[in-house]
Amino acid sequence: MTSTTPQVLPVRAHDGHAWSLAALVPADARASLVWLPALGVAAKHYLPFAEALAARGIAVFVHEWRGNGSSSLRAARDHDWGYRELLTVDLPVSEAAIDTAAPGLPRILGGHSLGGQLACCRLGLSPDAAQRLWLVAAGAPYWRAFPPRTRWWLPMAYRFLPWLADRCGALPGRRIGFGGQEARGVIRDWSRSALSGRYAAAGLDTDLEAAMARIAVPIDAVVKTEDWLAPASSLRFLLSKLPASTATIATLDAEGGRRADHFGWMKHPERTVEALVRRP
Fold first, then answer.
1. Are 80 and 185 spatial neighbours (Cβ–Cβ below 8 Å)?
2. Side-chain-facing half-sphere of 63: CA atoms under 13 Å
3. Which residue in 103, 87, 107, 104 sits closest to 212, CA to CA?
4. DSSP assignment string, 50-116
5. Of the chain's two ends, which shows fewer C-beta atoms within 10 Å, N or C?
6. Domains (range + CATH), the chain
7. How many other C-beta atoms are found inside a 10 Å radius of the C-beta of residue 129?
8. ∠ CA 200-223-8 to the nearest 5 degrees?
9. pLDDT tens across 183-227, in order?
């Protein structure tokens, strides 16, 4: 595969879940990136980002979260899952497909928002999965890691959303303006980390906090100045869980009439890409 035209790699987990990897692999690729989307965001929305990176010699593979985009499943009362399935069932399958499609390339693991958090968790579980970590608009949701103007109401939201997901069978994210149709287990795992400040996954015995503390890779992180969903303080809290790693943080503000917020960079990713690839 030697094309900068988006390719589709169909994959399937052992439990029958099927999805597609969006892949852009330039002929002169010098590294490969496994990219993990934000909560409720389909892989296709990262194609401008992937194209900009492919033009700079990075082969990009955008993972699809269970329940979104090309995924064969949709969260419902009779279809539930949590971080355990995302981290230990689906991601290893995508990684194996990438090993076949772009063998021998240095590996970068990265993500946006929740994708950045789960990239940290995945690297803790599988230290050989990547030699570098990229985080964009990603920070821990722990309520104490947020500025005072938003900190006071967050615990209420973090308790309400799991209740709503349980009541509806899945979180109706599109209707409330947060995420997509999200599985109850994902929202419970996310809420637990948001209230306690510690990462854990229901049904997973591994201590994720201890696993992340052992990660020792270079980290490049990008924070947006108008991003109230992942402010700089929440990024710093997330990075504090990786004390053995060295992080370089780029803070990007608004430019050309575009807001430096949580999602705006996805359509115009040039500055974000430049910040990530500035180191060899």
1. yes
2. 32
3. 87
4. HHHHHTTTEEEEE---TTSTT-S---BTTB---HHHIIIIIHHHHHHHHHHHSTT--EEEEEETHHH
5. C
6. 7-140+205-277 (3.40.50.1820)
7. 18
8. 70
9. 999 999 999 999 999 999 999 999 999 999 999 999 999 999 999
